[in-house]
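User: My advisor asked me to double-check a structure prediction for ADP-ribose 1''-phosphate phosphatase before group meeting. I don't want to rely on an old file, so could you generate it fresh from this sequence?
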Amino acid sequence: MIKYIKGDLFSHTPIDKSVSILAHACNCRGSWGAGVARVFQSKFPSAYEKYVDHCSQHSSDPSKLLGTSYLIPTSSSDPGNRNGHQFYVACLFTSDFAGRKKLTPKDIVANTNLSMQHLLSQVEELQTHGTKFESNDSSDLIVVNMPKINAGLFNVPWEDTEQELQQFDVDINVYVID
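Assistant: Sure, here is a fresh prediction for ADP-ribose 1''-phosphate phosphatase from the sequence you gave:
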């Protein structure tokens, strides 16, 4: 289920001591240079360093990252971590580039589906090892927090991404500022 929350994604606070997931759509080139990605970089520099390293490991063919996700635990010293809450940053690799070289909206939406599948498999794996992710009290579904992914620099109509996200058995909080 998708729930819209008016406010800043980075003000999200989990209800209990569980780990929260903050997700965003990423390019495969190791750059969080603009848009919400730049804010992720300033709030979670440790995650940014891991993201850059992950992308550099695939520098011979960055497109192999398309349709995958990279779930990164943040450091307690990151400015985005406050009041003892821990966050994981979920990088959803939905387009190889941003700007003029970005993929078509149809391809980006297809990669969003694959990236979400990969993210949820990573969450399941971590849960088997004891990580307690934020979940909905009434349904026990995992909560993923995100902006309107793909709608910014990747220029995909939000309705297309929204339709794809609705297929997943997960609660998605979409933060909107407008």
